[in-house]
Amino acid sequence: MLVYPSAIDLSSSTLQHLSGLLAGHRRRIGSRWRRLTCGRQALLVLAHLRCGDTYARLAAGFRIGIATVYRYIREAVDLLAALAPTLEQAMATVRKKAYVILDGTTLPIDRIAADRPYYSGKKKHHGMNVQVITDPAGRLIWASDALPGATHDLTAARIHGIPAALATAGVKCWADKAYQGAGPSIRVPLRGKHLRGWRRRHNRDHAKIRSLGERAMATLKCWQLLRKLRCSTTRITAVIRAIVALELAS
After folding, report:
1. How do the domains of the chain map onto residue ranges?
2. Under 8 Å between Cβ of 59 and 69
3. Which of 104, 133, 161, 199 is in the most buried spot, having the most CB atoms within 10 Å?
4. Which pLDDT band holds residue 49 (cuts at 50, 70, 90)?
5. pTM for the complete prediction?
6. pLDDT at 224 (0 to 100)
7. What is the per-residue burial (b if ≥16 Cβ within 10 Å, else e) of 183-221?
């Protein structure tokens, strides 16, 4: 197998942050020797999350076994996932904002046609539904656990308790028409295809505000692993939370 040098479009502070977490974890568990240093393990994990490099590629590039790559990545992802904010913790940040933006996305996964709960009729592919809350500038505040792709955005928001949490926090939220009926805290566009006058202007202004939330979606999808998840669906939530923790720490 040929090996070549590559690059990861992340800052050195992200590498140092993850390396520090791994070093602290190794001290706590009393790990005396590893095939890779904390810095090299952190680099391996970032290459997997950011660039989507497979276990086989990473094993060849770092000259370790595929099983070792799997263990290193799982260890780091679990450490990072534990640092991601819960919805209750995110509400402390939300209360400081004039308003927030709520949106959902469906992350593609590698499933077969028989896996109907994961098939999104809207996106026409298998995936996992993730709800995202951003600030008025489109900066990421919180991302939900992953649900099967067939889950509607409104249903997902209710499962996660987002409308109730926003109502308790007393913060207004802008969202698209998928959240019709979510509650008074969540503002959605007016219904109808051929609106005129103030109704049309209202929906146009609403769309301008809500569109900034797409920045957070773009930020998440810069992590190549999220563009086509091939891991077990039981691990996707941990991967998303790990990436959120890295984004919030940067």
Report:
1. 12-81, 87-232
2. yes
3. 133
4. very high
5. 0.91
6. 94
7. eebbbbbeeeeeeeeeeeeebeebeeebebbeebbebbe
